[in-house]
Design a protein that fits this description.
Layout (H helix, E strand, L loop, with lengths): L4 H6 L4 E3 H4 L1 E2 L4 E2 L6 E4 H7 L10 E5 L2 E8 L8 H21 L8 E8 L5 H14 L8 H9 L6 E6 H12 L6
Parallel strand pairs: 6-7, 7-8
Antiparallel strand pairs: 1-4, 2-3, 4-5, 5-6
Length: 183
Amino acid sequence: MADLSLLKSFFDSYGVTLKETSYDKENENFLCQSQEKVISFDKYMQSKREKYKKSFDALYFKNDTIYCVEFKNQKHSEISSQEIKNKYIDGLSELDKVFKSKNLKTSDYKFYLYVVFKNPSNDGAMTQYRKRFKEEEIDLGLRAKDFLEKLKNIKINSPKNKVGCVNDFRQEYQRVFSCSSYR
């Protein structure tokens, strides 16, 4: 397997904190306070003048795993499944071009696609959300056949998908970053 240091150096100028990638301009707030360094994939896409294309917010490399994170400061029910799928398809297609330019294959890596949305407004809503989440495996269409077929076209097979509110993301965050500084 190729060394991800090629990608890390390529994206070095787009390094920011996870907190910065979670910023919601419209509401002027952050979904998380983490100071972990990640890549602002939105900034990268803007620099490529790919403004017409959509992309996910953050990119993080660890060993042979690539984490792609989209933050949505919205209730789960307000998030457009199609918008999320388009962000991942466009963003991962562009990432595949970068891989090819570095003689890397996306098929050699594991991909995790995250969607982190704002917490339900109260404890009752949180309880209902968690119950519904366990029963229905809410995924915003990231397990849909058409979406997975498009990813196969860019050699990303069977990505792991995690969709959850900020509170639920904390546990996953601690596992990925091997720390407890997420707030």
